[in-house]
Each structure stands twice: as C-alpha cells, then as structure tokens.
Amino acid sequence: MPESLEAFLGSAIVFLLVGLGVGVLSGMLGIGGGTILVPLFKLGFGLPALGATATSLFTIIPTSISGVISHIRKGTCVVRLGVAAGLGGALTSPLGVWLSFQSPEWATMVVCALVIAYSASTMLIKAVKLWKVQKSITLSQGSAKVDAAVYEVPLGARNVIIAGVIGLTAGVLSGYVGLGGGFLIIPLFMQLLHMPMKLTSGTSLIAVMMLAVPGTVTQALLGNVDWVAGICVALGAVPGAVWGTKLLERISEVRLRFMFVGFLLIASILLILDQVL
To answer: How many other C-beta atoms can be found within 10 angstroms of the C-beta atom of residue 135?
Structure first.
C-alpha cells in the first residue's frame, strides 16, 4: 500500500474517532462541538485558522441534525424555542463571519474566551445551587423523557422573543469564532427562560443546527472548508450524537451541569494552547 494512501487512511480513522467523541458530547450537552473542533483542526491537523473555523461550522450541521432527531423522538427539546433561536442566529451568523475577516485572530480568541468564561461561571453557580438543594439525585432510565414531559416551559410570545434574541447574539459569535453557539445558548436559556438542562440540550441543538447553515455557506463560497476533514469527522459524529442522546437518560441534572462546566474548561484550555503554540 502506498505510503500516501496509508497516511490518508490513518488520518481518516483519527478524524472518525474525533468525530465520534464530539458527537457524543453534542448529543449529551447540546453543543455543536466547535469549541473542541476548531483548536483540534488547527493544532492536530494543521489547518489554517480560517480553514479550521469553516470546517468546524460545516461539521456542526450533520452532527446537530443527528442529535436533534434523537431529542425530538425522546421529547427532550422544545422545538418552538429552538426554532426561534435558530432563526435569530441564522440572520446574524453571516455578520459574524464578516467580522472575523475584519478582526485580528487574537481579538477573536479574546472574545471567545470571555464568552466561555461567562458561560462556565453561570453554569457552575447553577450546578452548585442545585447540588446544595439536592445532594443526591437518582434518575432511572428514561428519566430524561419524564423530565421533558412534566416540566412545562411557557411558550408565550415573550419567551419566543427572548429565544430569538438569544439566537441573534449566539449567531454573531458563532460566525465570528466558528463555534456552534451552544456554549452560549444553553446558559442563557437556563438563566432567562428557567429551563432544566435536560430540555435545554436538545433545544439548543435545534438552534445550533440552523444558525450554522448561513456561516457554512458563506465559508464554502469563500473556499475555506476542508471537505475531506469535515466529512470524515461528520461520519463519526452522526452516530456519536445518537449515542450521546441515549446517555443523557442516565445522567442526573446536577451531573449534567457539572459536565458542561468541565467541557467549557477543557475547551478554554484548548483555545489557549491554540494561541501559544
């Protein structure tokens, strides 16, 4: 077997495994995976900054679609709020892409770091409060569906508008730094709409799926997407998102919140390494 073919197959397998891991996180936590994919594409696979951002946005779409389908089947999302946030994000995502071309790379990463710090601190406070109220929570298999069924989220015009405004904000940041937006949508949904994370994860994925499309189209037209890398990662991420949704049933609300904080901390470390290496 030619060495170049061996190298290609080896890279493809690594991409698939990375996609599998990102997909599992996406299904469980409601994120598109951009906070992991952008630095990995740059540090691990040598893609240029714009290529890493563009390829990450492309990969987010099939990953999110897979997770959304699973969440809808299990009833662990609020479709109307997710669509409202997604439409808002889709409107402003191209603006974020345009801003990324106008800003130095260090400014992009500073903005990203500040947003992640806000999200992590907000989620940590909520997780600690819930842990203090109920130190041990035991949820049986299928509890995620029960949570979604019994937790009534108001769907009046006010909350739909709030979801849309959250999407507008997340859309700019998604296009600007090449992330899915879930890292911001989830804490804002919990903070402003008082949703439990077991509903927020699936609802966030709907928005992430929609707001990634305009940014991906824009980046594709500019020729920044590495299609081979993106497709290989997506092939692993699609089944991974399904498995992640299933795992959600086995994880308590408290642990899920702490897991999200841990994910954000890991993502912030990767983004710092991305800048110093």
So the answer is: 8
Phi, psi of 208 (to 5 degrees): -60, -45
In tens, the pLDDT along 8-27 reads 566 778 888 888 888 888 88
Please compute the mean of the pLDDT values over residues 259-265 and round it to a whole number: 82
Q: How far is 34 from 268, CA to CA, in rounded Å? A: 12
Question: What CA–CA distance (Å, rounded) separates 128 from 262?
Answer: 13
**Tokens at residue 124, please?**
């940590």
What is d(CA 150, CA 148) in angstroms, rounded to the nearest whole number?
A: 6
What's the angle, vertex CA 87, arms to CA 213 and CA 80, rounded to 5? 120
Q: Could you tell me which of 110, 47, 34 has the C-alpha nearest to residue 272?
A: 110
Residue identified by tokens 């405004």 is 165
Q: Which of 60, 91, 94, 96 is closest to 206 using CA atoms?
A: 60
Q: Give 215's Cβ-side CA count (13 Å radius).
A: 42
Q: Are 96 and 176 in contact (CB under 8 A)?
A: yes
DSSP state of 75: T
Where does residue 152 fall: left (phi above 0), alpha (psi -120 to 50 degrees), or beta otherwise?
beta
Residue type, 10: G
Q: In this structure, how many other beta carbons lie within 10 angstroms of the beta carbon of residue 82?
A: 29
What pLDDT, in 10s, does the model give residues 62-91? 888 988 998 898 888 889 999 999 999 888
Q: By the 8 A CB rule, do 116 and 264 touch?
A: yes
Residue 32 Cα distances to 151, 178, 219, angstroms: 24, 10, 17
**What's the pTM?**
0.78
